[in-house]
Amino acid sequence: MSKRYSLVALAIMLFFQMGNAQEKRGRARDFGLQIGILPTGTHNAITDVPGLSVGQKTLMAGDSIRTGVTAIIPHQGNLFQEKVPAAVYVGNGFGKMMGISQIQELGNIETPILLTNTLNAPIVANGLIDYMLALPGNERVKSVNAVVGETNDGGLNDIRGRHVSADDVLAAIAAASTGPVAEGNVGAGTGTECLGFKGGIGTASRKLPASRGGYTVGVLVQTNFGGVLSINGAPVGRELHNFYMQEPKEAHKVDGSCMIVIATDAPLSARNLERLAKRSYIAFGNVGAFSSNGSGDYSIAFSTNPKNRIPHESDSIELNATSVGNDYMSPLFMAVWEATEEAILNSMFMAEDVKGIRGRTVRALPIAETLRILKKYNALEYDKLPKAVSK
């Protein structure tokens, strides 16, 4: 091979490498990927649930800080004084989620839900408590159940440095918005990994028809788990040769955890919120996860319906609340499955390559190759597939 030919070949190789590095990212639906049959809300995000806001603080500094905070705020009032019904479902308990026992005992939450990394959970909880105590109206409060979820981002982040501070907590809360939600390498998802690729923050929503209540279900996920990636039934992880227990050399870690936050404006009791939370694990399995031994997988669900808010203090012995009946829960179950699955995929489609601690790099899902595989298995653009001919 001539020297000139070698240089040309090298230039071509570098061109394609640059093209891959600059591959256009987007949400799953931007590429024709459809999950389920229900319509989305306006932003296809958890913020489609009325009054709910999300704020994030991303920390990327030097060659080893890759972490952050994500805050989910159920309503715009004082959440301690006006609590909301809530429930938690534990898929696998190898996690450090804070506040879980009081949610299970009382069936409500009284602070925003904050997501971060494992070793920063106590620091974030402390900042959240400071925030709640400082709210007008909380001057006499002597107990706060801070709700903090986490996943371990130590593969890319200097997790032992515990770089998230109380100021970062306040910044995430202050940045909260009811509009579109940033996804991928942001907030608590900055240093996370998912199914052999870069994970992160993802979100999606579903809107029920008026005949089924017209309710909205929104989901936000922090993805940091392993398995064998599957999208609409297509074996993407296997085809890309990147999956758990791949021989002869394992491609990626399987432990790490997933936080799933579910919000709805449907009036639900804590009991039915737990039932709703359980259904999110159908989506967890659909994408190829199996809750490994070292994965802390939690789903927390709450209702923002104003009629069901729980006052911190009340002169009435009895509380009046409305609730969707058991026989009418199935549409909500379907909505949470669809929204969770799409949120997980959005976290991967929107993520980008990250180089972190000790020079380790985790690549983002290769979109062009993934789309090729999805087309091969007829898993794209269902509305455009040929219709079956009846005999």
UniProtKB/TrEMBL annotation:
GO molecular function: aminopeptidase activity
Keyword set includes Ribonucleoprotein: no
Stored InterPro entries: ArgJ-like_dom_sf, Peptidase_S58_DmpA
Signal peptide: 1-21
Keywords: Aminopeptidase, Hydrolase, Protease, Signal
Family under the similarity heading: Belongs to the peptidase S58 family.
Name of the protein in its database record: D-aminopeptidase
